[in-house]
């Protein structure tokens, strides 16, 4: 069996991501400052390593991105209300997450749209998942990339954010592999974030 080479660029990128996200979650009062700066670092690193896939037309990635983003919000909305019906304790955790980490100032909403969503997709799907697929194949790479994406949310101290990141990572990972379009998956992520943080928050 041929021995697979160690992907040092991927390993280094993951170490940097954990380091940056660890410090991002340490102080709620400055979360958006550190988080935004961290994602700018990860964007730069990802774009130096991989080309950006864009196999969809402008109309296609906008329209499909909006549809996928809305469908994902509906999935999360149904899940949130299921917690209440089943009397699960996660509703309080979600309210606490909004209180700690949701944007509240104008510049933070800009950072959400211009930095957070594009940055997470460029790094976790456009870099991590894309490199993993050469070693693991499509299904395993989507699963492992989603687990890695969820793993950096551990520093928030809340299981519900880790779980939500894992589910989101699976959805965005499938879309990215299926459509081979980074703009499309960024739009889907943006629409989801706008719905869940601005238009119809789950709280």
UniProtKB/TrEMBL annotation:
InterPro entries: Rce1/LyrA-like_dom
Transmembrane segments annotated in the record for this chain: 7-24, 30-48, 60-80, 100-120, 132-152, 158-177, 184-202
Keyword Aminoacyl-tRNA synthetase assigned: no
Key words, A-Z: Hydrolase, Membrane, Metalloprotease, Protease, Transmembrane, Transmembrane helix
Name of the protein in its database record: CPBP family intramembrane metalloprotease
Record flagged with keyword Transmembrane helix: yes
Domain CAAX prenyl protease 2/Lysostaphin resistance protein A-like: 104-195
GO molecular function: metallopeptidase activity
């Amino acid at each position: 069996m041929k021995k697979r080479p160690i992907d040092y660029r991927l390993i280094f990128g993951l170490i940097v991501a954990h380091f940056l996200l660890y410090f991002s979650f340490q102080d709620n009062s400055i979360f958006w400052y550190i988080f935004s700066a961290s994602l700018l670092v990860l964007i730069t690193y990802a774009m130096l390593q991989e080309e950006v896939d864009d196999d969809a037309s402008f109309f296609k990635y906008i329209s499909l991105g909006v549809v996928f983003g809305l469908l994902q919000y509906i999935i999360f909305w149904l899940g949130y209300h299921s917690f209440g019906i089943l009397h699960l304790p996660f509703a309080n955790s979600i309210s606490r997450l909004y209180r700690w980490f949701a944007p509240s100032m104008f510049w933070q909403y800009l950072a959400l749209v211009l930095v957070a969503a594009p940055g997470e997709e460029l790094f976790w799907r456009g870099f991590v998942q894309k490199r993993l697929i050469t070693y693991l194949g499509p299904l395993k790479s989507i699963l492992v990339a989603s687990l890695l994406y969820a793993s950096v949310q551990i520093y928030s101290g809340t299981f519900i954010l880790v779980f939500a990141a894992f589910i989101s990572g699976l959805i965005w990972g499938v879309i990215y592999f299926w459509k081979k379009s980074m703009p499309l998956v960024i739009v889907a992520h943006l629409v989801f974030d706008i719905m869940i943080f601005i238009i119809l928050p789950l709280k």
